[in-house]
Amino acid sequence: MSGLREPSTGGSSLGLEGRVALVTGATRGLGLAIARKLCACGSDVLLNYGHSDEDAERAIDALAPLKGTATAVRGDLSDARALPRILEEAGARYGRLDVLVHNAATWTRMGPAAADLAALHRDVATALDPLLTAVPLLPELMKAGGGRVIAISSTGAHRVVPGYLGLGVAKAALESLVRYLAVALSPYGIAANAVSTAKLDKGHTTGQAYRQARELARRTPAGRLTTPADVADVVALLCTDEAAWLRGQVVTADGGLGLLP
Fold it and tell me: Where in this chain does the entry annotate a coiled-coil region (predicted)?
């Protein structure tokens, strides 16, 4: 599919200059687009990644010309100790954290008739455990006020998508967790929300995948598939001071596709 674009690297910084942000799963795809947007706004961004040092190096090189700074931090979030360690590193480096974007996810294609229980449990754990292990550390890290926790969800949390059982259940649980986090963290001035999206246009596809993507693009009221940059823009908006009164909400960024039957 065509229509890919980069997040804006000029113009308004949305008041995010100097904010310290951590994005999980940040060296490729949607996570990288979110990191790019925050860097373009002047934030200092920690890019969490699990395995590929090569992807991390490419990501850092790509973000180097932007207004903010980018630092890669390796940590496999399947290890419950990983995110607390990364948060402690952020505190030691910057003295605080302003934004936590949880984008990392795992997905094993399956349906309910032939579910891989171990893989399903892994998908759910990747969605929930990093945030749950982070919660005890966030009030101190974000004590300056105005903290943001943003989870990345998908419309598969509410719609039946073939093969999407594990991640669909994980994202539904993640959206529920965001509501609990919003209540628990609000007394500390921290706003927790989620951004949900439909199928993303990540570049070239072929065969059946291309035909499906083209049909979804045709049906989308805005005239094309959602790109990672579109979602990154919404994440950045939720980080602004003006979004402080949004708590526990799931904001859908899909060009209006979900409005149709």
Answer: none
